[in-house]
Amino acid sequence: MTIDVFFSPAVVDETSVEGKTAVVIDVIRATSTLVEALANGAKAIFPTLSTEEAVKLASSLGREDTLLCGERKGLKVEGFDLGNSPAEFTAEVVGGKQLVMTTTNGTRAFAAVEAADRVLAASFLNLSAVVEALEGGGDLVIVCSGRENRFSLDDALCAGLLLQRLGVDGDGDVVMNDAARVAADLASNYTVSADFLGSTAAGKNLLGIGLESDLELCASLDRHSLVPEMRERRISVPPQEGLDT
Amino acid sequence: MTIDVFFSPAVVDETSVEGKTAVVIDVIRATSTLVEALANGAKAIFPTLSTEEAVKLASSLGREDTLLCGERKGLKVEGFDLGNSPAEFTAEVVGGKQLVMTTTNGTRAFAAVEAADRVLAASFLNLSAVVEALEGGGDLVIVCSGRENRFSLDDALCAGLLLQRLGVDGDGDVVMNDAARVAADLASNYTVSADFLGSTAAGKNLLGIGLESDLELCASLDRHSLVPEMRERRISVPPQEGLDT
User: What's the rounded Cα separation, in Å, for the pair A169 and A159?
Assistant: First the structure.
């Protein structure tokens, strides 16, 4: 079994993910937000790379049941219904809706792993559920969304906690790439908290634009027990797994 | 003072390095090899991105005093004088010569930092000398050459040891980016040795092509006390610093 971690979607190619399960992580904030949205009754999320593509897709899906969501430079795109703060995605707002979502980093990561056999979304909010979904599985690729293709500590720690909870440490039959070894080490060096997130580059950026309340929510370990899965560019909770409340 | 580490040259842009000192690291093997070559009396090294550019430059410099060096997929380029194994660069072979050198990852990193105020080359072979050259300096950027733009543990540990020896830990007045924080942590988790290098992706690749003897040399901490510096795409030891023996 192999476990590869990539600290940036830019270095992921088709051969890196083909035949494997891919887990996409964007702690601050895309995967945290989509877990929150699905937990609050959103039917599905469609990630798009550009705002133009988002507008077009929302229009073709039918605007009455679809919300346009996403950010540029951390802030809600002008004219969109929602930004990328998980707290915006309440049951009242997103229940029964489809969401079209474009974010700076997270949607790139989903695009990078489209060739994988299976694509799951992880954040601190649903970490244990993802671990459970992966147990006994085959080759694994974890893609950290990073920031503008650069290393992001919040995503790397989430990857590391995932590895720690999967019980892999580089010994035995599991072959880990260099980045996976380092991510696994991080789990012993840091503790998940709003303060920790606020010390990372992505967290400092949120503090700078007045969105510090997002940090507490993004640091909420195992707040939900669902595992979002992407099929045909549509992210939802597969029926057999049900929704938590 | 800011210290930024980049795990790949692909994410370094001009604004990342302008006005700063940049340190390029390619433990396996470009910066190890060029330190060894300069210690053995090579006059200068000219890094080039392509083999074609290397051949052209060597020809314009005059082939009698110039050696063509470099690798593709780890092995010597056909028709070149030398590959990229530091042990090839003995005083008998490189003394008094200019070297034109093209490698898969290291030369990309030098190209990425051309806009910096000052560009130094570091490896385990000259780590203390680089630390001494940096003491009391201003903003610092450390660029790990990586492997095909991906994270490389050998380079990251070298960056981390550099930070550890500089005495920076993220507290106090030094502002470190996320990657610098992680690199600094690595210094406590790993020890430099041929075995360690053999456990990394780059090291495994060398083992696979029968170049395991390079690992011992690349792990030789402080074997030399010189600091290569790049000026106008020419890497040499500035006269005031002299050559060690």
Answer: 13
Collect all residues of chain A within an 8 Å Cβ-Cβ radius of residue B150: 6, 11, 178-179
ipTM of the complex: 0.92
The answer to whether the CB atoms of B11 and A148 lie below 8 A apart is yes
How far apart, in Å, are the Cα atoms of B163 and each of B2, B5, B120, B130, B201?
12, 10, 15, 11, 23
Q: Which residue has the tokens 């909420």?
A: A220
Selection from A148, A165, A185 nearest residue A10 by Cα = A148
- Look up the pTM and report it: 0.94
Tens digit of each residue's pLDDT (9 = 90 or more) over A112-162:
999 999 999 999 999 999 999 998 889 999 999 999 899 999 999 999 999
The answer to whether B199 touches B206, Cβ cutoff 8 Å, is: no
In angstroms, what is the C-alpha Rg of chain B? Answer: 16
- Please compute, for residue A41, the number of CA atoms within 13 A of its CA located in the half-sphere on the CB side: 10
CB contact under 8 A, A179 and B150: yes
Q: Do B150 and A6 touch (CB under 8 A)?
A: yes
Contact: B149, A10; criterion CB under 8 Å: yes
- Which domains does chain A show, CATH number per domain? 2-233 (3.90.1560.10)
Amino acid letter, A109: A
- Mention every residue, 6+ apart, whose C-beta is less than 8 A from residue B149: A10, A11, B8, B9, B10, B108
Q: Which residues of A touch B148 (CB under 8 A)?
A: 11
Q: Which helix (H) or strand (E) holds B67?
A: strand B66-72
Mean pLDDT, range B231-244, rounded to an integer: 79
User: Look-up: residue for tokens 């993004």?
Assistant: A218
Nearest to B113 by CA among B140, B136, B131: B140
Which member of A7, A181, A189 has the closest CB to residue B185?
A189
Per-residue pLDDT tens for B165-206?
Answer: 999 866 678 999 999 999 999 999 999 999 999 999 999 999
Residue A128's H or E segment, with its range, is: helix A127-134
- pLDDT per position as a tens digit, A21-57: 999 999 999 999 999 999 999 999 999 999 999 999 9
Partner-chain contact A185 B186, CB within 8 Å:
yes
Out of B150, B178, B182, closest to residue A182 by CB: B182
Task: Give B11 to chain A, closest Cα distance, Å.
Answer: 6
Q: How far apart are the first and last CA of chain B?
A: 34
Strand order in the sheet with A98-102: A75-76, A66-72, A98-102, A44-47, A234-236, A229-231, A118-122, A21-25, A140-144, A2-6, A175-176
